[in-house]
TrEMBL record:
SMART domains: PbH1 (SM00710). Gene3D superfamilies: Single-stranded right-handed beta-helix, Pectin lyase-like. It comes from Bacillus songklensis. Residues 1-21 form the signal peptide. Residues 130-323 form the Periplasmic copper-binding protein NosD beta helix domain. PROSITE patterns: PROKAR_LIPOPROTEIN. It comes from the Bacteria. Keywords: Membrane, Signal, Transmembrane, Transmembrane helix. This is Nitrous oxide reductase family maturation protein NosD. The chain crosses the membrane at residues 395-416. InterPro entries: NosD_dom (IPR007742), Para_beta_helix_rpt-2 (IPR022441), PbH1 (IPR006626), Pectin_lyas_fold (IPR012334), Pectin_lyase_fold/virulence (IPR011050).
Length: 423
């Protein structure tokens, strides 16, 4: 009888081996010497683990560590932990939980596949961290990677989808975001109170906003693609607010509601970008002492709008809507390009006036009511040829631009006629 009971208990505990794996995995981690490597088989490990010494944990093709508690599935402390080829699942229903929580220095996370109901990875005062390859989704509830006062970290080749913000940095300086892809997020990249951050080679698409940089200094935004960020009435490809000394160089900013929006920002350099197929190409508000040159503006419904933003160096851009006359045969038109702020001023107090955008009545009104010369954004030397080899807009984007423009004009004519007939 005792023998049968022993066999029954053994079979019973054998059926719940995933639950036992929690204690077993942490025990193996605790027993591993510093510098050691633990290779995990393709299995599901339930429960949280804490790693506080420099070791390597490497999974197989289908190694899963998961937890539904309110604690991080994986916690990294101290220095030098390496994680490779792991699937991390955080299924907690408690808000603000995270799949991986990182403190310390010089950890390396490679090819992590993270599914979380809230945050993917949180860095708290961590530095020298490398996160590369893999994917993160958070059901739209939390940020993919969240950095708090964490400096000099590298995030590269990670795919973020269905997250609140792809990468969120607050008070975190000297970080690098390279060659990542962000889609279906609020902000693909969200920078707050940061300095000297490099954002290079990323694709941020189908978000509310491609990148937001707020109260930042010395950020470099280079060779990225901010495309099709137009799911919200306030969508932008690039949004700068209270940003200083930002470099925006060689980016493709296309098919957004507003390509580049800048407010209360100074001393920024915007050069050699392609801004195409947006509803509004570039829009300034209280933005001064910025340099905008050698950019290409093509196929935007409205190329530029500016309010209280006149103290800027704007020159040698290509505007496909500008009148061009190259009298000196030097590639520079002698006819300046002008952006009248009247439409923005009118729609600020009465948003319904946006129905009259580019209508015959609005065009006549702009001719009759002259804005003060010091409030008009001007490019005194627009280019007659594109400075960059811009990709030809697709047939769909051309047809969409024509359709939007025609619709706006037809609505304006209809309302104009209704107004006349009601007299």
């Amino acid at each position: 009888m005792l023998r049968l009971l022993f066999v029954f208990l053994l079979a019973l505990f054998g059926c719940i081996s995933p639950a036992m794996a929690e204690s077993e995995l942490q025990t193996k981690i605790d027993a591993l010497p510093e510098g050691g490597t633990l290779k995990l088989i393709d299995s599901i490990y339930d429960g949280e683990i804490v790693i506080n010494k420099p070791i390597t944990i490497e999974g197989g093709k289908n190694t899963v560590i998961r937890s539904c508690s309110d604690q991080p599935v994986v916690t990294l402390k101290d220095d030098g932990v390496v994680l490779k080829n792991l699937k991390i699942e955080q299924c907690s229903k408690t808000s603000d939980t995270t799949a991986i929580y990182v403190t310390g220095k010089n950890h390396h996370l490679e090819n992590m596949q993270i599914q979380s109901n809230h945050y993917g990875i949180k860095l708290n005062r961590a530095s020298g961290i490398v996160i590369e390859k893999g994917s993160i989704t958070t059901a739209g509830a939390g940020n993919g990677i969240d950095l708090w006062e964490s400096d000099h970290n590298l995030i590269q080749n990670v795919h973020f989808e269905n997250v609140r913000d792809g990468v969120y940095l607050e008070g975190s300086n000297g970080n690098q975001l390279r060659n990542n892809k962000m889609e279906k997020a609020r902000y693909g990249i969200h920078l707050m109170f940061c300095k000297d951050v490099l954002v290079q080679g990323n694709q941020s698409t189908h978000n509310f906003t491609g990148i937001m940089s707020m109260q930042t200094d010395g950020v470099k935004i280079i060779e990225n693609e901010f495309n099709v960020n137009n799911d919200n009435v306030n969508s932008q490809g690039v949004l700068l607010y209270d940003a200083y000394r930002t470099t925006i160089l060689r980016n493709e900013i296309s098919q957004n509601r507003v390509g580049l929006y800048m407010e209360s920002s100074r001393e920024n350099m915007i050069t050699h970008n392609i801004i195409s197929g947006n509803f509004t190409g570039i829009q300034f508000k209280n933005a001064n002492q910025n340099t905008i040159q050698q950019n290409t503006f093509i196929a935007n419904v409205n190329e530029s709008q500016a309010v209280k933003s006149t103290d800027n160096q704007i020159k040698n851009n290509y505007w496909d809507a500008a009148l061009k006359l190259d009298a000196n045969r030097n590639g520079i038109s002698i006819l300046p390009y002008r952006a009248d702020p009247l439409f923005l001023i009118l729609t600020k107090d009465v948003p319904e006036y946006q129905l009259f955008f580019d209508s015959p009545g609005m065009i006549v009104l702009q001719k009759l009511i002259k804005s003060p010369e010091n409030e008009i954004m001007k490019d005194p030397q627009p280019l007659t040829d594109m400075p960059l080899r811009a990709a030809k807009p697709s047939l769909i984007s051309i047809l969409l631009t024509v359709l939007i423009s025609t619709s706006m004009i037809m609505i304006g004519i209809k309302l104009f006629r209704l107004g006349r007939n009601s007299r």
